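Re: pyridoxal-5'-phosphate structure - here you go.
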Amino acid sequence: MAQIRAADSFETLAIHAGQDPDPLTGAVVPPIYQVSTYKQDGVGGLRGGTHAGIGSGPGRWIEGYEYSRTANPTRGALEECLAALEGGTRALAFASGMAAEDCLLRTICRPGDHVLIPHDAYGGTYRLFDKVLTHWGVTYHPVAVSDPPGVRAAVAEHRPKLIWVESPTNPLLSIADIGLLAEIAHSAGAMLAVDNTFASPYLQQPLVHGADAVVHSTTKYLGGHSDVVGGAIVTSDADLAARCAFLQNSTGSSGGPFDAWLTLRGIKTLAVRMERHCDNAAQVALMLAGHAKVSAVYYPGLPEHPGHEVAAKQMRAFGGMVSFRHAEGERAAIEMCGRTRLFTLGESLGGVESLIEHPASMTHAAAAGSPLEVPADLVRLSVGIENSDDLVQDIRAALG
Ligand SMILES: *Cc1c(COP(=O)(O)O)cnc(C)c1O
C-alpha cells in the first residue's frame, strides 16, 4: 500500500515514491535485493508485485519476480521513484545513461529512419549516433535546438522519426523550448526525446511540456555523489515503455541492485542539493561575467544568455553547470584546468564536489573535427555544493 499520493510535492516524492517501509521488517530504506533469481511457488507461480517488500510499485509493471535482468525489487523502487519525479507513468533503470539512450533509440528507430540531434550534443550521444547507429541504417542531422525555425525547417527537409534534445545542452548550455519542439515534432508525426541530465527533474519536467520520453544519466545530479554510473528512460506512453522494457530485457542493459540503491539514496537529497548547486553556479557565473580573462560565459541564469527567457519559463532555476571561454586561448584554458584547488580536474558532473574540465580534449573529444566540435578555449565547470565564496575564490585564483 503506497504511502504517497499523486499530489505530493517533489521533495516528498523524492524521499517516499517507490520506497514504502519494508512490510516484513519495517526497514525505512529499500533493501538491496542482491539476488539473481527467485523461488517460484510451483512452475510459473511468481512472487512479487504488491508483497515484494517495496510497496505496490514494481508490481504495477511486472508479473512477478523471475530473474533480476528482467525485474529486481531494488531497481523497481528506483524506477517508481523516477517515474514519479518526472511526472511519467513508467521508468526503466539502466546500467548507464548511454545504455538508456541506446535502448530508447533502438526501440523507436528502424533502418532508414532519421533523427535530428543537437549540434552541441553530449559527446557520447554524438558518438552513439555517428559511430554505432549509422552502421544500422539510422542517420542523423545536427541542428541548433535553441532555434525553433531552424528545427522546423530541418523537420520539413529530413522527415525525422525522432527529435533528440538536450536542454541545457552539454557543454554550451543552450536552451531548447521543449513545449514548442514537442509541437513541431508531433505536427510532423515525429517523437520528441529529451535528455534531462543537466536539469534533473527538480528543475525541469519535459514530459509535462509534451516530450514523449525523457532519458537520464543518473550518474550525474540524480545520483549526485560521483559514486555510481546509471541511466534511465521515463515516459507516460505505456506502449513505448513496454517496448523499451522488452529490449532492455532482451539485451540485458538493466542496472544492478546496489547501483539502484545508491541512486535512490542520492535522489532523497536532490531538491536541497539542486538549490545549492543553482545558487553557487549563479555566483560563479556572475564573477566570470565580470572577469577580464573571460571572453564569454554560458549560463542560462544570466539575463544576457540567449535562452534565458525560455529557461525561466520551463525551469525552476538555472542549474549548476557553467561554461566559459578563456580570453587567452586554448593553452591558457588547459593550464587553468590544472591550477584549481577545490575544483577537481575530471569528467562527469552533478556531484556534490565541484569539477573542472576542458571539453575539447576530454568529454567532447569524440566530436573533434565534426559539426559538433566545441571551442578549444572552452572550460566547463560542474559547480558543487561547497561554500560559494570558496568556489568563486578558487576559480578567480586559477584564472590568475
Ligand atoms: C554523462 C551524460 C550522458 C551519458 O551517461 P553515462 O551515465 O555516462 O552513460 C548522457 N547525456 C548527458 C547530457 C550526460 O552528461
